[in-house]
Amino acid sequence: MARFTRNPADEQKSATPGSSSPRRYRKDVAQRAKLDRKTAKTTAKSEKQKAKATAKAEKAAAKAQKKGEHGRITPGNTKKAVGVFKIVAPVLAPYIAKAAFTARDGYDRMRARRLGVPVGDLARFSGRGAALHARIAGDADALQDLRTRTDGHGDGDSTTSQVNVERFTDNAEKRLGQLTSAVRAAERMPSSRRRAAHRSVAGELSRIEDDIMRRLEL
What we know:
Structural class: mainly alpha
Number of domains: 3
Strand content: under 5%
InterPro entries: DUF6474
Pfam family, one: DUF6474
Shape: elongated
Distance between the termini: 127 Å
Number of helices: 6
Radius of gyration: 44 Å
Order of helices and strands: HHHHHH
Helix content: over 70%
């Protein structure tokens, strides 16, 4: 009967799981232990620094409270505020600029709707008489449209009608120019006189607009 014998090298190899050499296994264990100690040391140091910073902040707050500096402007507080602003300002600047642009755009659109003009034309109408200037510009466009409709359509009675339209548009455009000057002059008047001038101009514009609508058969 054959007798089974174990190889001492195999026994030594199986005694060190996961490693081909006892020396290498011990080296890995030592390195892991060293790394664990280093990590623990770093963590402890970080916690110590954090605790030290917290204690320092609490001490400074208590000192400021004792001196009555909370809620007051002091050289120290001002210096700290400036330091914080220098850090925060570059981060917040893009958001502030975007918010300002959005607000301005919304305001311009609201003004354009109120005046009845495109947003791109807002620069043409400024001052307290902006709404009247916008009405005058709209009436001038309507007169030009009326003139264009009647051009080249005339013989007999139509020719007479065309002459009447030409005369009306010429007189109305001249009157609009006078009203524009009146609105501009009213900008420098006292409030009560300016309001009276604006009411007078608005009434004259209403009459011109009624004539335009009638001639456009609207």
